[in-house]
Amino acid sequence: MIILNFISPTQKEANRFQKGYSLVKKIMLIFTVVLIISVGVLAATQILLQDKLEDITKATEAQKQYTVEEKPIDLEQTIKDFNRLLSNINTIQSEYTPWSKIFIETSSFVPDGIQISSLMMHKASAEFKFVGNANTRDDLLLLKKNLEESDIFTDIQSPISNLLSKENINFELSGKLKFETNSKTN
Question: 99-185 adopts what CATH topology?
């Protein structure tokens, strides 16, 4: 096979120049597209980094504000406050009266024929008062005797009207409470 080339040397030179120009043009086009994509990625990254920087700045400002508002701990004052609190707790506990224990012990003094309808015990005045009904006079006298022999009650007073009837007696007993001996049962 024989190749014949009828193109003039100037035409050949122009074609070679045209091919070089097309190659440079394609390279420039590819470079421009890559450059545009890079600029887009960098712009998006800048926006994301700017948002992140603003978040970090806000968090830092909030932390500074909290740190500025935070007062230093005064250890000596804290200990004084704690000791005062312990003293208050000790005072409250020393004034506590175990009423449930007193009521349980009191219930053991009440004989079967007695119904107590009202029971009042006042710590400040150290007084008590029982109001109720006794089936018989003997039941009432046994209750009075049990209360007098107890470590909780003293100075038991019973009106004479409690003893006038032999049966179905509405009674009232009063007296003093002994808190000193009670504190031993705590």
Answer: Gyrase A; domain 2 (3.30.1360)
